[in-house]
């Protein structure tokens, strides 16, 4: 991306912030460091400190580019409107899977996306416990280190594994289903050979902007359930990700 920070420099920032602000608090949160910001939605001291540190680091790498972060939007919902305007925006989920993090489960990650003129140009997902960093740049593939990632091949429904909500109509029609409490880990598994598909209803940009790009750059097919392309903003609707258009159509029919 000419004129933008090297994706590896951004990755280094994610590692640095996770080491300084997230991992030292993992399994060590005091009662006052966890609270509900909305019914059923937890926030921890790690979320707040990591988002603050990421925003400061990104401001050094790309001065003048605003941030839309999960915790910043919780404090000021008007910040979401930045994604409706022309120009560049960083989209931050400092700790995806906060409920897992708070209870000591390692199913959490840091997600970052660079959105320019309403299009995700680059995405990062970092699992700090496993030390996994996945990066995708539009048109350049999805990578973990020097390994190019690819989605699993498709097949009949009864051979597919996916991430879906409880009570989905696909339960019983596919081989295996699970929900991990972390969109980041669903995306990591979609491009890491563990999941064939995923189905999401709560579409906040910090959960999906990076992951949808990573999945597409690994060869996957993702669309809103009405067939329209995903856009990196807060939206109503349902997102369905599959290995290819044929499997996407099968899954969509199964959800109807």
TrEMBL record:
UniProt keyword Hydrolase, yes or no: yes
Transmembrane segment boundaries: none
Keyword Metal-binding: yes
UniProt entry keywords in alphabetical sequence: Hydrolase, Magnesium, Metal-binding
Pfam family, one: Inositol_P
PROSITE patterns per record: IMP_1 (PS00629)
Protein family: Belongs to the inositol monophosphatase superfamily.
PANTHER family the UniProt entry points to: INOSITOL MONOPHOSPHATASE, INOSITOL-1-MONOPHOSPHATASE-RELATED
Protein name as annotated: Inositol monophosphatase family protein
């Amino acid at each position: 991306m000419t004129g933008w920070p090297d994706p590896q420099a951004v990755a280094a920032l994610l590692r640095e912030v996770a080491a300084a602000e997230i991992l030292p608090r993992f399994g060590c949160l005091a009662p006052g460091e966890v609270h509900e910001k909305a019914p059923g939605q937890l926030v921890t001291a790690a979320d707040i400190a990591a988002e603050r540190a990421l925003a400061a680091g990104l401001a050094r790498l790309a001065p003048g580019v605003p941030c839309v972060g999960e915790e910043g939007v919780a404090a000021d919902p008007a910040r979401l409107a930045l994604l409706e305007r022309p120009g560049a925006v960083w989209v931050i989920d400092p700790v995806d899977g906060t409920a897992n993090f708070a209870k000591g489960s390692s199913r959490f990650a840091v997600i970052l996306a660079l959105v320019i003129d309403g299009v995700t140009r680059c995405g990062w997902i970092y699992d700090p416990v496993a030390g996994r960093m996945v990066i995708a740049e539009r048109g350049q593939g999805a990578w973990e280190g020097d390994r190019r990632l690819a989605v699993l091949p498709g097949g009949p429904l009864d051979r597919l594994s996916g991430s879906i909500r409880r009570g989905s109509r696909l339960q019983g029609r596919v081989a295996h289903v699970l929900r991990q409490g972390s969109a980041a880990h669903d995306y990591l598994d979609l491009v890491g050979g563990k999941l064939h598909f995923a189905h999401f209803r709560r579409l906040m940009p910090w959960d999906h902007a990076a992951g949808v790009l990573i999945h597409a750059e690994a060869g996957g097919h993702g669309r809103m359930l009405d067939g329209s392309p995903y856009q990196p903003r807060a939206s109503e609707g349902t997102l369905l990700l599959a290995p290819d258009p044929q499997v996407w159509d099968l899954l969509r029919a199964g959800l109807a």
